[in-house]
Design brief:
The chain is mostly helical and about 525 residues long. The protein is about 65% helix and about 5% strand. It has three domains: about 90 residues; about 70 residues, no CATH class; about 280 residues, no CATH class. The N and C termini lie far apart (about 160 Å).
Length: about 525
Amino acid sequence: MLPIANLNLKDLYQSTFEFFASRTPSFSFSAESTDDSDSDHSFPPTPSDLSNLLLHPEEVCLPLRDRLDAAERTRCHTTSSYRSFGASAAASTLYSMRREHDAIKNELSRTQAEVARWEERCKTLEKTLKETKDLLKVRDQEIQVLKKERDRNSPERQLRERTSMHIDRRRSRDPVHHHRSNSSQSQQIRLSADWSEIRDDTLSQTNGNHRRIASDPHPDNMSTVSEEERAHSRSLETFLNKIDLWSGAQVIQAVQDLNSEILQFAASATELCTFSKQRPNSAKVTQASSEVATRLGSALSRLLATRDHSQDPMLVQLALQGCISYCISRALSSFCIGYQSKANITLTQIYTHMFQSEPQPTSSRWRALTHKHIHELHPELNDYAINEMTETIFRWSLDIFLISGSTNPQPNPASRENFRGRFGAQVKRISKAACRLAQVTKEEIMSANFEVIAADSGQSFDGQDMTDAFEDYGSSDGVVLCTTELGLRCSTRKGTSDTPASEENIDRRILLRPKVVLESVVEVIDPR
């Protein structure tokens, strides 16, 4: 019986140990606290350990109850926390969704307004486009009508019609027209005769030259005449072309820009210079005064040499503007700037006579071709003209400063070279603009003759031909001292080649009146 009892007791305490070990993690026996490295097996508890457990059951059950209560409190707290967190998260999500909804509504309303505005603009553009297309169609129709009228009235068409008419008339009268065995020499003679008659009609209507003999016994001469007439007919369109590359408004603007450049240089140079009351009496000053009197007149030269400019150099600035304006107007009055003096005089006389006696397209074409070919024969002429004009402006300006008592720049060469270095680029820009204006008026305008003009010193004031620079400060009295701003005049011949040469047949209009300074300016500058 003992072995069976021992077996039951052993099973009982093992099961009890497993129960408490599974329910209470902190429960352990002294045997389990030993290091696992001492033994590979776990020994069961001893009977004395089991007896200690059975003697104090409340000690085992008390920690178990505490842990269960603590777990229950933790669960309740966690549940309540979860509920409060969920409520706050839901409220926050709802608020953010409402804000997003309001922002989307505002953006949608703005987008709709923008779409409506762009639709209105699109409708306006479509309407404008339709009107523009209709206008272009009307313009195209007008252009086609004008082209047809031009082709119908063009000299080439008339020449072809007269050619065909003369050829048909010649063939109808020619007894050998139907003979195909004629020699090439006979055909050449017949063709030359036709062109001779055509040439007579054309020359009588265009240039007014005498008729030539329509027949020539020499076939070689006839062929030469025929070639001349062919060349004349080919060049007729170019010769009578009146298309201008520049308009009158563009030429006026170019002259105004040139006047602005002159004013800027004169103001800058005068402001930089200093003047003294004392004038040295030297041969150089006397010579400079004489040269200034030749260019600007004795009255202005005397004012520059006798007045005190140390406080107000306004008169020196006006004289400087007049000096540069006179230099440019004199250069532009020549036929080709920078060309030989004698050749320029001859070409100017030829063109003046041709302008008064020939039709406007004829004289303009001759002027443009001659000016163009002079520059092609002398490619360096443009650069030479720019450098020569720049040097002349500097030399004349320094003469004015010298007789006005300038102490800076001084008469010595070093001071003058510093002055040239300071204003070299500005003066060269003025010279380039003047040469460019000369090329435009000489080569690129065929319908008229444009002249850059300036009033002469000592000339009586005429309000129709010039403008007083100080007319707002008093009455315009006295004669002209100098021209401060250049003007522009347009001349066109109204008659044909048969009209006798006279000034009545030339239409002259002043498009831009030159601005002048009168003797009354002294009272405006110094009312004493």
